[in-house]
């Protein structure tokens, strides 16, 4: 699997002396769905903003397709690394949803027909057709976030960072975002989600990077992360409820890595059948 992004001994110190990142070394592979988790102040967002040039390293390097980000302007990186902010108001400025989606496409100098095709596909995928001619900022925060997601999704960046994408979303909204992540990953795009939503991580991520106090404390699969109580406690995180239940029932023979309600039901049924033999 080819590497599309890499950090090498990355450090970032904010004015005032706050050491937000400490010797971060990681690689991101093509098509992988990654979640970065940790408490507020752990360095998640600071790390992500280095990949598109919104922040620059105090020391160390970030490479995109082998090229040092330091040699690129932020505008040049936009076509390579998409970013959806936690607050959608930071990136919504057009008069209509349609204009918002078309803006990035026009800046890519695509032909009119391709812009039209991408617009139609994006509007239909996110179920935005009914509001396509309305002002984005008039809607709820959840809808505004979907519009922001749609505008970046339409550009199909090779690498996409999503900062707390499920905040303010109802269940259908979360499902739509999850399906977008799966779809783009299958098409070869690398998706990085910064989130506190551990249930979303379990369902849609295949790799989890746990951060605490500006450092990476563990990098593994969701199942492995959520079974590691030491790592979860160090990062001050709570696993999905099914993992907490599995931990409580482990003494009765329920596996610690039981990861969803179906697995839990099967494990309990199997344990019960065994006890009746």
Q: Which stretches are poorly predicted, pLDDT < 50 over at least 5 residues?
A: none
In total, the number of strands is 10
Average pLDDT figure: 90
Q: Which percent range describes the beta-strand content?
A: 15-25%
Count of DSSP-assigned helices: 11
Shape: globular
Helix share of residues? Answer: 25-40%
Kindly report the spatial arrangement of strands forming the biggest sheet.
Answer: 6-7-8-3-9-10
| Gross CATH architecture of the largest domain | 3-Layer(aba) Sandwich
Count of the domains? 3
CATH top level class name of the largest domain: Alpha Beta
Task: Please summarize the sheet with the most strands.
Answer: 6 strands, mixed
- The topology string of helices and strands comes to EEEHEEHEHHHEHEHEEHHHH
Structural class: alpha/beta
As a whole number of angstroms, the C-alpha radius of gyration is 20 Å
Q: What is the third-level CATH name, the topology of the largest domain?
A: Rossmann fold
| CATH homologous superfamily classification of the largest domain | P-loop containing nucleotide triphosphate hydrolases
Distance between the termini: 47 Å
């Amino acid at each position: 699997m080819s590497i599309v992004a890499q950090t090498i001994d990355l450090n970032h110190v904010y004015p005032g002396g706050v050491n937000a990142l400490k010797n971060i070394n990681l690689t991101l592979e093509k098509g992988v769905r990654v979640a970065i988790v940790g408490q507020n102040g752990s360095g998640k967002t600071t790390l992500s903003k280095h990949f598109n040039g919104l922040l620059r390293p105090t020391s160390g390097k970030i490479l995109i397709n082998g090229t040092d980000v330091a040699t690129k302007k932020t505008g040049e990186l936009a076509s390579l690394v998409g970013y959806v902010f936690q607050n959608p108001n930071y990136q919504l400025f057009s008069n209509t949803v349609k204009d918002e989606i078309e803006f990035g496409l026009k800046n890519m100098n695509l032909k009119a027909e391709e812009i039209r095709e991408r617009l139609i596909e994006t509007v239909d995928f996110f179920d935005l057709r009914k509001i396509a001619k309305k002002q984005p900022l008039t809607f709820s925060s959840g809808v505004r976030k979907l519009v922001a997601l749609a505008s970046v999704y339409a550009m199909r960046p090779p690498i996409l960072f999503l900062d707390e994408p499920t905040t303010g979303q109802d269940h259908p909204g979360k499902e739509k975002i999850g399906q977008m992540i799966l779809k783009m990953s299958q098409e070869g795009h690398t998706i990085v989600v910064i989130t506190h939503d551990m249930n979303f991580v379990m369902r849609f991520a295949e790799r989890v990077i746990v951060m605490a106090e500006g450092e990476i404390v563990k990098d593994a699969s969701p199942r492995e992360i959520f079974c590691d109580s030491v790592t979860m406690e160090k990062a001050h995180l709570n696993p999905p409820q099914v993992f907490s239940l599995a931990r409580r029932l482990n003494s009765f023979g329920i596996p610690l890595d039981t990861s969803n309600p179906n697995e839990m039901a099967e494990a309990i049924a199997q344990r019960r059948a065994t006890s009746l033999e």
